[in-house]
Write a structure and sequence with these properties.
Number of helices: 7
Strand order of the largest sheet: 5-4-3-8-7-6
CATH topology of the largest domain: Beta-Lactamase
CATH superfamily of the largest domain: GAF domain
Mean pLDDT: 86
Radius of gyration: 20 Å
Number of domains: 2
Number of strands: 8
Largest sheet: 6 strands, antiparallel
Helix content: 40-55%
Structural class: alpha+beta
């Protein structure tokens, strides 16, 4: 008869990773007791797990006793972002050439959509352009809407977010750049990856009208490559 229980080391690792995730998503930090309750362990075990994570600078204990993401987590995020960017960019170049439009990869950072990578079309005339690192509020522009639509439904969310989630893409006009059309598709990434989307921006309505199926197909291929 086989024993299907996880080895002690694997169980400890799983708890540590889960605790790190709980701290990372907590808007106002997390207490030892909250982590213990979520992990269904004694407070002393949760305290040891958090202390180990703090030693690795993955979490930090604030003066109010709550644990928040630590500086070491930024280094991990940088590595994850680099992987996401390197996988997505070949698909983005293909789309930029096909549509003659700027294609960007955006991720959620707090309450903002942040451009992780931007690809302009080759040998094209006037195109819309912006730099990696550019940001705007979530819920604004196709990318901001698509990033919200990537999450489960939330009470009181905007109708355009609900609609975008149902159809698989967001489309807006003039919300970030006056006179510009935006089309964005969220990526379906594994747990631990940032919420991300592919975004097309153009002044040509015929391009915006035809872009969604190709963007959705590219998003599926990127998500598969990262799974």
């Amino acid at each position: 008869m086989s024993d299907s229980r996880p080895a002690p080391g694997a169980q400890t690792l799983a708890r540590g990773l889960r605790a790190l995730e709980l701290v990372a998503v907590a808007r106002d930090g997390a207490t030892i007791q909250e982590i213990a309750a979520e992990l269904d362990v004694h407070r002393s075990i949760a305290s040891r797990i958090l202390s180990t994570l703090a030693d690795a600078r993955l979490v930090a204990r604030s003066a109010d006793g709550r644990y928040r993401p630590g500086a070491g987590l930024a280094a991990l995020a940088t590595g994850v972002h680099g992987t996401l960017r390197s996988i997505a960019e070949p698909f983005m170049r293909e789309l930029a050439g096909e549509f003659g439009a700027t294609i960007s990869l955006l991720v959620t950072e707090g309450e903002e959509a942040v451009a992780l990578a931007v690809i302009e079309p080759p040998a094209s005339g006037y195109v819309l352009s912006f730099r990696a690192g550019a940001r705007h509020p979530l819920g604004r522009g196709a990318a901001g809407v698509a990033l919200l639509a990537a999450a489960p439904p939330a009470p009181g969310e905007a109708e355009k977010v609900t609609t975008s989630r149902a159809r698989g893409y967001a489309a807006t006009f003039g919300e970030v750049e006056p006179g510009a059309y935006g089309v964005a598709v969220p990526l379906s990434l594994a747990e631990g990856m940032p919420t991300a989307c592919l975004n097309l921006i153009t002044y040509r309505p015929e391009v915006a009208d035809s872009a969604a199926p190709r963007l959705m197909a590219a998003a599926e291929r990127i998500s598969a490559a990262l799974s």
